[in-house]
Amino acid sequence: MLLDGVLILIAIIGALVMWLRWNYGYWKKRGIPYVEPTIIFGNMKEVITGSTNIGVVSQKIYNQYPGEPAIGFFNMRQPVLQLKDLDLIKAVLVTEFSNFRENAMSITKQADPILGRNPFFLTGDEWKEARKTHTLNHTANKLKTLFKYIEEVKDDMVNYIKKNIGRKFEAQDFSGRFTTDVVSSCVFGVKTCSLAEEDSEFRKKSIEILQMGWKWSLFMISPSIFSILRIPLINKGIQDFFYNLVKDMVEMRKNNKLTRSDFLQNLINEKEHNFTMMEMTAQTMTFFIDGYATSATEMSFLLYMLAIYPDIQDRVRNEINNVEKLDFDTVHHLPYLDAVFNETLRLYPAGVVLSRLCNQDTTLKGGNKTFEFKKNDRIEIPVFALHRDPEHFPEPLKFKPERFLNNANHPALLTFGAGPRACFGSRFAKTQIKTGVAYLVKNFRILPGTEDRSMPTVNNSKTVLLSPDKEMSVKFENL
């Protein structure tokens, strides 16, 4: 009996091992070079265990086969094709978009009523409609209307720093408070005072949005589990907070016949769609999450790079001082500030990888090879790795803004993606970040908060977005 039991156990373990390894010959059969996977984790052990940021793991895969236009790897048991060749990447994101139109990650509205309505996760006609709504609300004219609210927050920030000269600020926290105040005003019409009120309830809720912990790690690996088991990425308390906020603001405006030139008002005025309260909440939170979180990350690295490179900061200041007025138009016509912005986001992009699904069999050429993409093949575009590839950007670990002075549209720069699924909020992000930074540089000298002047490393995976491995602080002094 004991022997029979042992044999059965061995057979079960053997069958389990075979099942776990069953798909690991996928890329070999297709003649595509690949990184040898380990059982259970595939090539994603560091991501699954939370020890390393997915962008850094993606870069390790990228560096395995120099010169190859694409590399296969495994997300647990799922085969993924990482694209390295720029022609292949352009085809997937732009010219052949109709064959790769869906993100590889999605979540249903039943699982998460907020993110399930976010254009990033939507598919098909729902994505088209959501993209249309957000694109119409991110035109230059709409952003010009919102600029006065950015200026109000900018004034509050400058006055706050004048009262706190020499104080050390953690760069991400400081930037997050600025973008929270900007976006809450532009989206909801709410003045949140996150800088002055350090225990602001609104600021606390904003931080909680991205504190997904194990959820995000699991979602990156197996998003379908969340839809099947109806597990929300954003917890119920956060959903309720913003739902009630939107409901109260809409009712207050309607009951008192009030209007305001902001994103929420645009939704209220949209007669064609007649949005439900939950749809309004999801739409406003899409704008809020994109505008607050990613912009805060990007702004924090930009401030720190200016702090540790004082000569570059001085050059930005000279450019700003040579314009008569810092308004919406001039903020977008400061070539050197633009170059510094692009170089910062090259090194520290908010989105470190892009993912797509092939929705029908397609043949594409990359390098000197032809690739047969099969329906449901998962594709990865390794943004972080591309941005640090010396073939595209010589001396990639050096901070050299001048590389973008005459080439702002480098094909390997994918900070905001490319094609129809590119980030529609990029113009707003650039507007608030550049405005905030321009006025800080104009009024103060930005210094590092510690004696350390080294460039930040970003191996950890503490949050959904890139975050530095060690303290990244700044302080301000009068000019």
UniProtKB/TrEMBL annotation:
InterPro entries: Cyt_P450 (IPR001128), Cyt_P450_CS (IPR017972), Cyt_P450_E_grp-I (IPR002401), Cyt_P450_sf (IPR036396), Insect_CytP450_Detox (IPR050476). Gene3D superfamilies: Cytochrome P450. It is a peripheral membrane protein. One of its GO terms (cellular component) is endoplasmic reticulum membrane. Heme binds at C423. One of its GO terms (molecular function) is heme binding. The keyword Iron applies. It comes from the Eukaryota. The chain crosses the membrane at residues 6-24, 213-233. This is Cytochrome P450. It comes from Nesidiocoris tenuis.
